[in-house]
Write a structure and sequence with these properties.
- The protein is an all-beta fold and about 180 residues long.
- The chain has strands at about 5, 15-20, 20-30, 35, 40-45, 50-60, 70-75, 80, 85, 105, 110-115, 120-125, 130-135, 145, 150, 160-165, 170-175.
- The strands form four sheets. The protein has an eight-stranded antiparallel β-sheet with strand order 1-2-3-6-7-17-13-14, with no helix packed on it. Strands 4-5-12-16-15 form a five-stranded antiparallel β-sheet, with no helix packed on it.
Length: about 180
């Protein structure tokens, strides 16, 4: 049960990972609520109809129950600058490509830097908000901007963090006091 691949919605698969140290949703999770072992994911819309990768990983501590530091990872679609998508054996396609179309890069792989979509999402954590400090991280892991942490109304001992493209980050650090 730690790894579940849900293909009940044809063409919109969703993989979930629920281990003591990692909670993850991969696939078409956009605008759904997924809760894994006390961690809630609520991603918003993305360029590819809700496709995203969201993860919470324990960086310090044995597991989520005694965690002192977490890493949130959040990303959507990706491409190299200048890469040209083509319909398999056919014409050029826009980015992102339409759903259900077989695509190829051929030999047009593009170049660095890679362009990655930031995902808007609400992340719920099973800790009182006054115990948490959260920062957006840059590509080197350096803290850039603090994020607000709010109290969840339904469960007062839980915190909510809103992430998204405005932070220009794919990673967020959570420190638990």
């Amino acid at each position: 049960g730690e790894l579940v691949w849900d293909v009940s919605n044809e063409g919109r698969g969703l993989v979930t990972v629920d281990t003591p140290r990692s909670k993850m949703v991969i696939g078409f999770a956009g605008e759904k609520r997924v809760t894994l072992g006390g961690v809630g994911f609520e991603p918003g819309p993305t360029l590819q109809e809700g496709f995203c990768v969201l993860a919470v990983t324990v960086m310090e501590g044995h597991d989520l129950t005694d965690a002192r530091r977490l890493l949130i990872t959040a990303l959507g679609t990706q491409r190299n600058r200048g890469a040209e998508l083509r319909r398999y054996r056919g014409e050029k396609l826009p980015f992102p490509p339409p759903a259900g179309v077989q695509v190829t890069l051929g030999v047009d792989f593009g170049s660095v830097p890679s362009q990655v979509e930031g995902v808007p999402a609400r992340i719920r954590l099973p800790f009182p908000p006054d115990r948490l400090s959260v920062w957006a991280l840059d590509a080197t892991g350096t803290r850039t901007r603090p994020l607000a942490v709010t109290r969840e109304k339904a469960t007062p001992d839980s915190a909510a963090i809103d992430i998204g493209p405005v932070y220009r980050a794919l990673w967020y650090e959570v420190v638990i006091e």
